[in-house]
Design brief:
The protein has about 220 residues and is α+β, with helices and mostly antiparallel strands. The protein is about 40% helix and about 20% strand. Helix 2 runs antiparallel to helix 4 and helix 3 runs antiparallel to helix 4. The longest helix has about 30 residues. The radius of gyration is 32 Å and the shape is elongated.
Amino acid sequence: MIKKLHFIALETKEYLYSKEINTAQCGLDLPNSTELEPLPPKKGFAVCFVKKKWVYVVDNRTKIYYLNKEKVVFKLGDKITNEMSLKRLSYEEILKQKREEKIVEIKLKCTTSIESGFESTALGNVHLYKSDRDDQLNLTGMKDRGISLPLKCSADHRASWEWKPHTPLQLQKVFNAGVDFKLAQLQKCALLKSAILYAKKVEDLVEINWEKSDANKR
């Protein structure tokens, strides 16, 4: 008995070729083949046999695109994204792009650090105070009232928080500590941004980070 079989690539499952087979000589079943007629060719797609049926799969394997400086090596099914370009970026363009990304990262780290809380010895020993945007505004308002008020703080490194009475002088000291802390973070951010702008190599940018800057001071 003669029947027409369509052969399939073992790894990619794409259509390879069709051939008439004498089943008396080759048997009824041959691996990686099917009697199901494949779909017609379609530009930009490969015809693949998936889950016992033929489907179109995006095929960009012959395309030449770049992601930053590196050439993209497409596999069957890989799509072209908005970040990819037909143009290979120059090293200066890549460096500029990496600088911009690093500055965004440092600004975010700075904001997170400012809002992570600060320490003050206004009550005699070290207490931690909250410092998100609302906390900063609330502390400013409490300090400006010039009266004794309770303020939430932690004496055990965030394990617990407690409202403790603060005199106007203590509120002022807490406020000053918060201002000094915020200023220190902003100055640190400015120094790191300056280092980013003066970096001459992408590798130099990798070495610039918020946490490492803290470690270098210790």
